[in-house]
Amino acid sequence: TKHVNKNIMWTTAKNFTVERGRQQIEELISTWDIHESWLHHSEFLDEEELKESKRYHYRACWGIPTRRKPIPQATASVYFIIVISKFKPDTAPVEVFYRLESSRLIRRPEQCQFREKWLKDIIENKIACTERL
Hints:
With 133 residues, this protein is an alpha+beta fold. It has helices spanning 18-30, 116-132; strands spanning 39-49, 53-63, 76-85, 95-100. It is built from 2 helices and 4 strands, in the order H-E-E-E-E-H.
C-alpha cells in the first residue's frame, strides 16, 4: 500500500510556543496510520540553545493497555525536535524531526511515513529482554 504523507503546516518561528509545538506534534501523530488500541501521551522535555538554532525536545510515549493489563508491559517512545533557525527570518516555518528510542536515525515527517511496526518492534524487544532477565 502506498501511503500519502499528510503535510502539516508548521507554525512560524515568531508564532512558536512550547505548547503550540506540542499541539502540532499531536496534529502530526493524528495523521499516522496507527491502530486505535495504541494510546500515547506527549510532553515537552527541554529547550536547547545552540549557536545556529534553538531546539525544543518532546517525547510521545506509546503503549497498548488492555483490560487484563491496564498498565502496558512495555512502552515505546518517539522523540521529536522542533528547530528554530537563528539565520532564517522569523516568518519561516519551524523544522521538525523525530527518532525512535531504539534508533539513532533521524527522520523528517514530510519525507518518511511513520509505521506502526516500529512501535511494535520496540515493545517486543523490551518484553523479550525482560523475559530473558
